[in-house]
Amino acid sequence: MILEGELQAGERLNEIDLARQLGVSRSPVREAARSLEREGLVRAVANEGVFVRDLSVEAALELYDLRAMMAGYLCSRVAATGTAQQKSELRSFVERLADALRKGDEDTYFELNLAFHDRIAAASGAERAAALYTSLGKEVRLMRLRVLTGPEALQASNAEHDRIVTAIELGDVETARSEGAQHHMNGKKRLLETL
Fold first, then answer.
1. Is 22:29 a contact under the CB 8 Å cutoff?
2. Which tens digit of pLDDT belongs to each residue from 21-33?
3. Which of 6, 174, 176, 186 is the most buried (most CB within 10 A)?
4. How far is 59 from 157, CA to CA, in rounded Å?
5. Distance of CA 172 to the CA centre of its chain
6. What is the DSSP annotation of 48-70?
7. Distances in Å between the alpha carbon of 73 and those of 21, 53, 67, 132, 176?
8. Is the pTM of this model over 0.70?
């Protein structure tokens, strides 16, 4: 609901309403709120409640810079050590993303995009870097509707994915690093264009 914009930045999560809407008791809603707070999507304010996190533009730009550095490193690691199976799996993601584009299915594209980046992080074998990258990515998701919307942005994004995977397939460590970092810097640029 947060990622799809149904709950707006700064909006208070009403436990009773959410429990009723989801057909559950308040306990799962409370547990979900704690999980969302760990992921950086909400913030709890003592004696006031839980609110959808309002990510400032400055914070979002910093997150893009940090993720660009991490992505470059992770992509270079996969290019250096990735198995044929991992490379095939990444290529499959690019094809599935292209299929979602052809169908105009932005929601599927977004989910596959997240899984693609998570898969690169996991395939890198760099556990700490992957955990940091994934953690930063959860916060960036708050900006999803501004960055990954519309056919042009999605096509540009998947063309970048294709260049990343091509470099990984070729074992070209430096190009993989460069393309991985540039992909996130292009996301930052797309965000700036929406302001």
1. yes
2. 999 999 999 999 9
3. 176
4. 22
5. 24
6. TEEEE----HHHHHHHHHHHHHH
7. 42, 28, 10, 12, 9
8. yes
